[in-house]
Amino acid sequence: MYKKVCPRCAKSSYSSCRSGEWICPVCSNDLTFQRVLFESAQTKVTRLDPYKNRNESAVESVYSIYA
């Protein structure tokens, strides 16, 4: 993932492509020739336990509301 910061509005813009036309989604400023910053993507993968009783967590959350 790549990141550019708009000099006009100072907001960050992200893209999966480093090249090509790049327009700020906030103020529509042309960011094509701005410096590209690499942004590492961190993805957390959570596996579901097929043997866990899903109703237990729902019941626990209902009880926590009334506690």
- Give the biggest sheet: 3 strands, antiparallel
Instruction: Report how far apart the termini are.
Output: 43 Å
State mean pLDDT (0 to 100 scale).
76
Question: Low-confidence segments, ≥5 residues, pLDDT <50?
Answer: 61-67
Alpha plus pi helix count: 1
The number of domains: 1
Radius of gyration over all CA atoms, rounded: 21 Å
User: Order of strands across the biggest sheet?
Assistant: 2-1-3
Instruction: Using the alpha-carbon principal axes, give the shape.
Output: elongated
E-strand count? 3
Task: Set down the secondary structure blueprint.
Layout: E1 2-5, E2 12-15, E3 37-38, H1 54-66
Antiparallel strand pairs: 1-2, 1-3
Walk me through what this model shows.
The chain has one domain (2-66). The model is unreliable at 61-67 (pLDDT under 50). A 3-stranded antiparallel sheet has the order 2-1-3, with no helix packed on it. With 67 residues, the chain is an alpha+beta fold. The chain is 19% helix and 15% strand. The chain has one helix spanning 54-66, and strands at 2-5, 12-15, 37-38. The chain has 1 helix and 3 strands, in the order βββα.
Short description:
By secondary structure, the protein is an alpha+beta fold. It has one helix at 54-66; strands at residues 2-5, 12-15, 37-38.
Feature tags:
67 residues; alpha+beta; 3 strands; elongated
